[in-house]
Request: fold
Amino acid sequence: MHKDRYDLALSCASDAALRSFLAGVDCAVRFDHPGITELQKATSEDEDFALAHAMLGRQLQIHGFNSEVRNHLDRSVALKASATKREQSTIDVIVAAASFDPRVLDLARSHVDEYPNDVIVLSHLVGPFGLLAFSGQRDWREQNMALLQATKAAYSDDDWWFLTACSFMEAESGDLRQARIDGERAWSLDENGNCAHSLAHVHFEAGALDEGAAFINGWEAKHGDKSDMRHHLMWHLALLGRESGGDAGELLEMFARELDPSISDPMPLTTFSDNASLMWRCSLGGIEIPDSISHDLVRYADAHYPHRGFAFADIHRVMSVALANDREQRQDLVDELADLAQDSESEQARCVHQFAKAFNAFADQDYRLAASLLEPVVADSVLLGGSNPQRRIIEETWHEATRRCSW
Reply:
């Protein structure tokens, strides 16, 4: 029987299908390329390769090709009886995650307990966009670290993916010394976008602004033109420039040059969150955002995240709508989020509603109200998921609102 790089059995019919599948999974975890072409090739070389269909559906969804997702997920479910027990469980996790099934976290945890070296499922769980991060639990970072510690024995000391996952979460949790050791070790083993991203976070969290900018610029010169991480790492570069005292107008220039979706749009969630938060930071810096940009942000949200309830997308929609000069639209969104908070009775939804009211107040130049709304919930930004720099936008808005109260 064919096996993957972690010695896990795969139910595929040919060496060619195996090679294409492994190449697709490699792309998926490296973050440089979608892996869609490779996984499409795997499913054409073996039309009954259930796990390949599931992975293809996942990658299509992540990269915004939603019209094609369901066919491959349904195909994977129809074929999974002929797959191994482990593959069947992996397919269940992928399908549940794609469908926002509330059981997915338990399914993934149980799977990893039995198959700790299944990178496909473990990568679903950990990281800033993982199932734990978006679970609405306050201690998701601690849970990430505990899970990585529990699975550590299943990975070799030179597994770049595992080292990178550890580096990112160590930086999130404040263990910057170990984060740097693991991140630099991973980078020395494989210079890919995932490794580069973790190191960029290490630099940012450590306040190594010049080193971080030099690293990203060096990465961009060598790898940027062929990596899907270019958009997000250029966003990191913009933040480093801002932390170094750069003018807010430079952020707007960075957007026009590098981040506008017409120029770079690798993955909807990063494109949207990067661009919305960068424009909000420009606004905090006193830069008036052109109507064309704010309206494009709202249209992008409508296209990719039309429904409320995904907190990380919702908070970036809040920023986008707050930037647009339409009070009725802003109030409608606040009302929708209020209904969601009441219906779901979740702490996460309650906080998003509070953030929305505060950002609206800021947009209305009622800085005292914005500051008073944000002050008791600044720490609750952890419920949004994402990374420290992404969630810090809540604290930055609170500080700026407080500063402007004295105007």
